[in-house]
Design goal:
There is one protein chain. This protein is α/β, with parallel strands linked by helices and 214 residues long. 40% of the residues lie in helices and 11% in strands. It has 7 helices and 5 strands; from the N terminus they run βαβαβααβαβαα. 40% of the residues are buried.
Length: 214
């Protein structure tokens, strides 16, 4: 079986990405990050998910993006709550972590080269790239070009959700029997999700859409 590195945050999108890689016959090597974010609930979720889905090996890389800050996830900035759907989809939000995907993909590439993996899976999607510049298809294409120069085209970044929205991803997660109950999407860290931040709102709407169709 061919190995692949999957960026696994612990949310529905990245968990479904992991499920896709496994369904396509890859030996999955999920990679998560303790990057100085507000809480560790998502990395704990990622560990449970990797174990539940039968990943080959899961690692958590420790870096500290708090040294730069500039985000509600890595700095003393409040997470916005009660934003409308229009507000969530407009402009770059304060929950954007500067250069995060670039940094994460660099780490993923390093591990891919070590384990001789030709594929890196990334769960960015159409909703994310409306506000997060490092989730755009153009970004993935540019990073793929850089990766090709660095490795002689030996490694490719796969972004299966580039043209899918959250509702479509949630529906796919259900079809693939993704353990949605193990995932965590909330920007806040507590016993229960806040149900008020953008991530919670998007999760709720996506899962509601799946129930409505069912």
């Amino acid at each position: 079986m061919k190995p692949a590195v999957i960026l696994l945050s612990g949310g529905i999108d990245s968990t479904t990405t992991l499920a896709i890689a496994l369904a396509e016959g890859y030996d999955a090597y999920p990679l998560s990050f303790d990057y100085g974010q507000r809480h560790q609930i998502e990395t704990q979720a990622a560990r449970r998910i990797a174990d539940s889905l039968g990943a080959k090996e899961h690692r958590v890389a420790t870096i500290d993006l708090r040294v730069f800050g500039g985000s509600a996830l890595t700095d003393h900035i409040d997470v916005p709550k009660h934003r409308s759907e229009k507000e969530i989809g407009h402009g770059i939000p304060v929950t954007y972590v500067p250069a995060r995907n670039t940094v994460f993909l660099a780490y993923a590439l390093a591990w891919a080269e070590v384990i001789s993996a030709a594929d890196i899976f990334l769960g960015v999607n159409a909703i994310d790239y409306s506000g997060y510049p490092d989730c755009r298809p153009e970004f993935v294409d540019a990073i793929n070009y850089a990766v090709g120069l660095a490795t002689g085209e030996a490694v490719v970044i796969e972004a299966p959700f580039s043209n899918m929205d959250k509702n479509e991803i949630a529906a796919l997660a259900v079809r693939l029997n993704v353990p949605i109950g193990l995932t965590w999407s909330c920007y806040e860290g507590d016993t229960d999700p806040c149900r008020k931040c953008g991530a919670c709102v998007e999760r709720s709407q996506a899962l509601s859409s799946v129930k409505a169709v069912a």
